[in-house]
Design goal:
By secondary structure, this protein is of the alpha/beta class. It contains three helices and seven strands. The chain starts with 16 loop residues before the first helix and ends with a strand.
Length: 143
């Protein structure tokens, strides 16, 4: 068996170029596939103001239904960052009720929206058997 001398020593090198390319492609992939969800409470809704209230804590992880005002007296229903009609809202609440028997719903209605639209959401909740329904208001700290 022949032994290598110092001059004949084999030098191994690792090329970092493919590693850097893969790393950059992974970063681009994760940036493009990440969904940046906006919290339901961050939507632009003007809540009606109310004096200081003493209320119980809402149920754990309720379904938040946003009722936004549209010109012409119409409303826009929004749940989990998806626009919905009353029919799709009823179906969504029904599926949620099947998964969690003790499900609660929080309605965030714009102060300019007609009460009939908020009542329609309450009707959808009653239709699927959800009894824990609450509405939100903005607490006026000046009173």
């Amino acid at each position: 068996m022949r032994l290598l001398t110092e001059d004949e020593e084999i030098k191994y090198e690792i090329s970092l170029t493919p590693l850097i390319d893969i790393f950059c492609l992974l970063i681009i992939f994760f940036l493009l596939t990440t969904s940046f969800m906006q919290l339901e409470q961050d939507l632009d809704i003007e809540l009606p103001k109310q004096g200081k209230l003493k209320v119980k804590a809402p149920p754990s992880k309720p379904v938040v239904v946003n009722v936004r005002h549209l010109p012409g007296g119409k409303a826009y229903y929004h749940v989990e960052n998806e626009p919905m009609t009353l029919a799709t809202l009823t179906a969504h609440l029904s599926r949620t009720k099947v998964r969690n028997k003790d499900q609660g719903v929080v309605i965030r209605g714009d102060k300019r929206v007609k009460w009939e639209h908020v009542a329609a959401v309450m009707g959808c909740c009653g239709q699927v058997g959800i009894t824990k329904v609450s509405a939100t208001v903005e607490v006026d700290q000046s009173q």
